[in-house]
Specification:
Helix content is 44%, strand content 14%. Bound molecules: zinc ion (3 copies). The site of one zinc ion has 7 residues, from helix 6. Belongs to the Fur family.
Length: 163
Amino acid sequence: MPTAFPSADHDHHACVSHALDAAEAECRRRGARLTDVRRRVLELVWQQGHAPVGAYALLDMLGREGFCAAPPTVYRALDFLLAHGLIHRIERLNAYTGCSRPGVPHAGQFLLCERCGTAVELDDPAIDSVIAAAAARLGFAVSRQTVEVDGICPACRAQGGLA
Ligand SMILES: [Zn+2]
Ligand SMILES: [Zn+2]
Ligand SMILES: [Zn+2]
């Protein structure tokens, strides 16, 4: 089920609260503890709209809120969120984005807007099958896979210019 690009005037508060509810449910299901700092890091990731955010930006934001924000605190929180499928890492940007479907196993597949930074998950099983089949033909066992596609999102295209 491909996710649509969010419209500029969508209710992003609803995205954030839905993501936090889903994260809490997923942690309960897994018996994992969503501590205050982990929850706050997830919330900050989502609050940046749908653009991925880097670890140091998160560190700044946490520090301003009085969390004991040493880099290991943030990296440990990010590792926890990654391990439980609540966020994805966008390799090319060295940044993190909230997962729109935690609890459903899937490899990361992203469309990344070069103008506004919006990242949208494709989550299309057909892409995984094609990669798996192509890798298998070469005798290659896939252990982890991230698909990152750069381009221009519908909102930025509507603003004119290229593409
Ligand atoms: Zn949103
Ligand atoms: Zn996801
Ligand atoms: Zn855009």
